[in-house]
């Protein structure tokens, strides 16, 4: 059932061009600049007129939610907050009028997320969901929702479910922005066309980054700690990259917004520290370049994920991973691919139990 792969995690990483495409099937038609999300069709007016969106999730799903926060504010102009389900659950929360709550969960069975969403519902919010498992508890308790349709995910480390969640989030944000008129039609159309290319670009990313990732894995297999840095939409990807590394390789890792480094973590930098920078060509590019210099001048080892053809960072970094070019808003989807693979490769070199890491369960159904 591993389809010839050594581990489910590897199979699930490699499947992503297809699972991402499956997610788009019947929902996105690039030629007509058309996006349809049947599951939330009846709620679209409510979403458009929402005064606030509140996202609730745990773990990797929380990281997808963080990407959603940036997108809903950037493309749709809707104030968006995000909370860990376990925090929301035990806090006195203020749910104001016209708040739409969005729960994100691969399994649909995470105990904290279930209880948090029930709480939001009791407080009168409309509750939407993004789940992978059809008919799961969260899918049933939400007022409406969208399935990721990436198939069963077996590896404890979530990979294809994460990119599936991102696929839905991008379609939601684009659809809301179009309906709301917060995005010019031509820009919308262009983004839909670009987005349609993502499955092919995931495939290219898997192919083009393999050798670099293999070399980097060999170099950092004995590291005792690593730092992942990104900005804007790629800050959640830094968090997700670090989570993947911790879970399956047992190397301590931290994700940070790149500019926060100088507020503390920079003290950790020495010649043994690997720092992974997510550095696409976007509006914070120059800032990231100076963050890289700060690490280099303290002897840190820099691994940089850059846009294909970027020579500036390639000259400064110890290792570079070139990522196919896409619109800056879609870079998170491609950037996470080599980071998943890096964790996988390092875990393999360290002979870890990749599909069943110690102390972890696929779904956390207890508190
Ligand atoms: O099934 P869920 O999406 O609700 O699960 C949430 C987390 O438990 C999950 O993402 C966890 O962090 C993964 N092991 C990450 O790879």
What does this structure look like?
With 367 residues, this protein is an alpha/beta fold. Helices cover 46% and strands 17% of the residues. It is built from 14 helices and 12 strands. The strands form 3 sheets. A 5-stranded parallel sheet has the order 4-3-5-6-7, with helices on both faces. It has a 5-stranded parallel sheet with strand order 9-8-10-11-12, sandwiched between helices. Strand 6, helix 7 and strand 7 form a beta-alpha-beta unit. Helix 11 packs parallel to helix 14. The mean pLDDT is 96. The structure holds 5-amino-5-deoxy-1-O-phosphono-D-mannitol (M6R). The site of 5-amino-5-deoxy-1-O-phosphono-D-mannitol has 16 residues, from helix 4 and helix 11. Homodimer. It catalyses: D-fructose 6-phosphate + L-glutamine = D-glucosamine 6-phosphate + L-glutamate. This is Glutamine--fructose-6-phosphate aminotransferase [isomerizing]. It is found in: Cytoplasm. Its main location: cytoplasm.
Overall morphology:
globular
DSSP strand content:
15-25%
Total beta strand runs: 12
Task: Spell out the helices and strands N to C.
Answer: HHEEHEHEHEHEHEHHHEHEEHEHEH
Looking across the biggest beta sheet, what order are the strands in?
4-3-5-6-7
Largest sheet: 5 strands, parallel
Low-pLDDT sequence parts = none
Helix content, binned percent: 40-55%
What is the terminal separation in angstroms?
31 Å
Number of helices: 14
* Oligomeric form: single chain
Ligand kinds: 5-amino-5-deoxy-1-O-phosphono-D-mannitol
Average pLDDT, rounded to a whole number, is: 96
Radius of gyration (CA) equals: 20 Å
> Which structural class do you get from the secondary structure elements?
alpha/beta
């Amino acid at each position: 059932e591993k389809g010839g792969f050594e581990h489910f995690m590897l199979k699930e990483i490699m499947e992503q061009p297809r699972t991402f495409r499956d997610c788009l099937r019947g929902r996105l038609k690039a030629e007509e600049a058309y996006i349809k999300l049947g599951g939330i069709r009846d709620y679209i007016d409510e979403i458009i007129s929402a005064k606030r969106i509140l996202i609730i999730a745990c773990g990797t799903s929380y990281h997808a939610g963080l990407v959603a926060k940036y997108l809903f504010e950037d493309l749709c102009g809707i104030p968006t907050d995000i909370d860990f389900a376990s925090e929301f659950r035990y806090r006195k929360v203020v749910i104001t009028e016209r708040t739409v709550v969005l729960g994100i969960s691969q399994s649909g069975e995470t105990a904290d997320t279930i209880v948090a969403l029930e709480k939001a519902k009791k407080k009168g919010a409309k509750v939407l969901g993004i789940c992978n498992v059809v008919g799961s508890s969260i899918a049933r308790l939400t007022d409406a929702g969208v399935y990721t349709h990436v198939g069963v995910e077996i590896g404890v480390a979530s990979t294809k479910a994460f990119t599936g969640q991102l696929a839905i989030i991008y379609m939601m944000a684009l659809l809301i922005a179009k309906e709301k008129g917060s995005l010019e039609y031509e820009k919308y159309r262009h983004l839909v066309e670009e987005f349609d290319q993502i499955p092919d670009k995931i495939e290219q990313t898997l192919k083009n980054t393999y050798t670099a990732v293999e070399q980097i894995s060999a170099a950092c297999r004995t590291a005792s700690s690593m730092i992942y840095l990104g900005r804007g939409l790629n800050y959640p990807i830094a968090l997700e990259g670090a989570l993947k590394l911790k879970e399956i390789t047992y190397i301590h890792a931290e994700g940070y917004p790149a500019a926060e480094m100088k507020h503390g973590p920079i003290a950790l930098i020495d010649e043994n520290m690997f720092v992974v920078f997510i550095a696409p060509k976007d509006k914070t590019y120059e800032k990231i370049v100076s963050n890289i210099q700060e690490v280099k001048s303290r002897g840190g080892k820099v691994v940089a994920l850059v846009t294909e053809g970027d020579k500036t960072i390639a000259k400064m970094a110890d290792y570079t991973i070139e990522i196919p070019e896409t619109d800056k808003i879609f870079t998170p989807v491609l950037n996470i691919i080599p980071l998943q693979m890096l964790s996988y490769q390092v875990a393999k070199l360290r002979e870890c139990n990749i599909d069943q890491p110690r102390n972890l369960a696929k779904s956390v159904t207890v508190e």
